[in-house]
Structures are given as C-alpha cells and as structure tokens.
Design a protein that fits this description.
12 helices; 0% strand; mainly alpha; 289 residues; single chain; Type II secretion system protein
C-alpha cells in the first residue's frame, strides 16, 4: 500500500513542477526537442537544474562534459548541448524513479524494486558519459585515418602549381563523402570561410580548435608556417608530416583490428558451447537409455 502512496506523491510532485516549469521552458524545449528526449519531463528537469544550481555544484563534471561537446560539435553549440545532456540525465532519472516505484507496486516487490532503480540511477550518468567519450574517441580516430590522405592530396595539388587555399578547396570538391568524414566536414567550414574572404590564418586556427586533435594541430601549424613561402619548403614539410601521419594511421588500424578480434571472443565462445551441446546431447541421451 505504501508503494501506491509513494507513487501518487511522486506523480503529484512531478505534475506540479511540470505546471510551474512548462510556461518558463516551453520555448527552449520546442527549439531543442531533439536533444532533450524524453521531452515529456524536460521542463521538470530544466526547473530542477536551475533551482538546484547544478552548474554551480558540479563545475568539474560539467566542464568535462562541455569539453567533450566542444570536441564533438564545436564551440557554437557546445554550451547548449552540455545543458541538454544534463537535462537528459535528470529526465531519465525522474522516469526511472517513477517507473521503479510503479513496478514495485504492480509486482508487489516493493522496496526491492526501488533498490534496483537506485542502482540504475547511480550508473546512468556514468553510462551516458562513457557513450559520449566513445563518440569523441571514434571521431578523433576517424580524423586521424582521413588526415594522411588529405595531406597527400594537398602535396600533389601544390606540386601541380595550385595555391594552398585552392588545394584545400579542391580536397573538398573532389570528395563526394564530405559529410561522412568529420575531418573533411570541419575543413569544408574552413574552406567556406576562406571563400568568403575570411583570413586564411584565422580560418585554419578555428579549424584546428574545432578538431581538437594533436596531429591536426601539427598539420595546421606546418601549413601556417610555410604556406606563404610555398614551393619546395612547403612540400618537403608536408611530406615529412605525411610520413609521420601514415605511421600513426597504421598504429590506429592495428588497434582497431585488435579491438575487433577481442569483440569476436564472446560470440566464438557462445558458438563453441552450442556446438558442444549439440554434439554431446545425443551421447548423454544414449547413456541414460
């Protein structure tokens, strides 16, 4: 009976906060509804976030999340995405609390179901953060895989008499899968800025910040130090860099291969057990007869 009472209290509190928060955050939720899923309790989470001053209480954790959002999506949307990420954690937490209480009442398990819900609440931020970290790692690895090819293209185009600016633009124009490559996507933004008469130095520095990868920083530094001189000095510098980048790419490819093989261990063990059961079952049945 107490579980039903607890469920009613939770629903009433959530409903009251939703009534108070909906007029305040309706516009924000509508504008960023893709990032705020589940949106049904997003206003409640935004209200709690402001009232509890989460940003002031957890500055280090939020700073880490913001840094990852900056690396994944750039500086323009990093702040909003960080806020939406925290709201999502709060929204899932609210739904877990209400859901575990409801299941505890419906199944007569009671406090045991609440304990399971509490355990899930503890792991939820860690799981979402780990997923974010894996996305950032995947993006950086993809950039490192694409960078050597891009540097080789620039070397060939500069050797053919193109300027550095035009060589960068041709790298974008000749690749039909720009949107699938994080590196070329960021480079296309820089190329667009250069095409709109923005400073080449400023555009490449912004490109470097958006990527947030050490090897890309080395590439942009080499480019900015030598692009005005052009000619053999730039080509030689890029060739030396290309050799280093290809070695890095080989190392990443080797790591990815090892990870893929380790992921196959569990399916192989499972298949082995199934085969053993299929082979051993007839023999066991014959022995019982």
């Amino acid at each position: 009976m107490y579980m039903l009472a607890l469920l009613c209290v939770e629903l009433v509190i959530t409903g009251v906060i939703l009534m108070l928060a909906n007029p305040l955050y309706k516009g924000f939720v509508k504008e960023h509804q893709v990032l705020l899923k589940p949106t049904i309790v997003a206003p409640v989470s935004l209200w709690l976030m402001d009232k509890l001053r989460v940003a002031d209480r957890l500055p280090e954790s939020i700073s880490k999340i913001h840094h990852m959002m900056f690396g994944l999506y750039g500086s323009k949307t990093a702040m909003i995405r960080t806020k939406c990420f925290i709201v999502r954690i709060l929204s899932y937490s609210i739904l877990i609390v209400i859901g575990s209480t409801f299941l505890g009442w419906a199944s007569d398990v009671g406090a045991e179901m609440l304990a399971y819900g509490s355990g899930l609440l503890l792991f939820l931020p860690f799981l979402l953060y780990k997923n974010l970290a894996s996305q950032l790692l995947k993006k950086k690895r993809q950039m490192l895989l694409d960078l050597p090819e891009m540097v080789n293209q620039i070397v060939l185009l500069v050797n053919a008499g193109e300027t550095v600016q035009k060589a960068l633009m041709r790298c974008i124009e000749r690749n039909p899968n720009v949107q699938k490559s994080p590196l070329l996507t960021e480079l296309s933004i820089a190329a667009y800025e250069i095409g709109m008469n923005a400073s080449f130095t400023k555009s490449m520095e912004d490109f470097n910040k958006r990527c947030g990868v050490q090897e890309v920083s080395l590439f942009t530094t080499t480019l900015l130090l030598n692009y005005k001189r052009g000619g053999d000095e730039l080509v030689m510098s890029l060739k030396e860099l290309s050799f280093t980048l290809w070695e890095k790419r080989k190392s990443i490819a080797k790591t990815l291969g090892e990870e893929a093989s380790s992921k196959m261990v569990f399916p192989m063990v499972f298949i082995f057990l199934v085969v053993m059961i299929v082979v051993a079952a007839p023999a066991i049945l014959m022995m019982e007869q």
